[in-house]
Amino acid sequence: MKRRQMLKHFALATTAAMLLPSCIKDPKKVSIALSNLNVTGEEEELLAAIADTIIPDTDKPGAKTVGAHLFTLVMIDDCGNKESKEKYMRGLRAFDEACEEISGKSFSDLSVEERLTLLKKIDKNEVGLKEDVVTFYMASKQYIIQGYTSSQYFLTEVKPYQLVPGPGWKGCIAVSETPNV
To answer: One Pfam family name from the record (predicted)?
Structure first.
């Protein structure tokens, strides 16, 4: 009798041990798979906050909503060489520290106006930042804008994309007369 109880308890404990990891969800996981970059959920949120500051949501979706920050990560992951990826990641990890030195708060704790003011100062190079941080911000800004302007929303709603050769082209026209050659 004790053996059966022990086997039941052992089977229950084994099942619980197998199911427990799938029940616990890490809320700070990166939402996309990257091959070469090791980005945390907090770093992705920081990049999303920067994207939301550069192109905010208005009556139209902003950069964060269309996923321009994810586009940025994919572009850095796929297109950069090893040195540029390392420099980008060093800048990403040092960005919040730099914000705290300048404003006394982390970037995510700043108000929208303070974020915008800080990014404008970085653009104009008014604050002395490390080269890695400036490189990170400038590359992120470039890819966020590129990601937004190449998003499905932008190309269908804001500036509709026209397929080449366009609606005025007539590819098949009957030739009524041929010129004398």
So the answer is: Gluconate_2-dh3
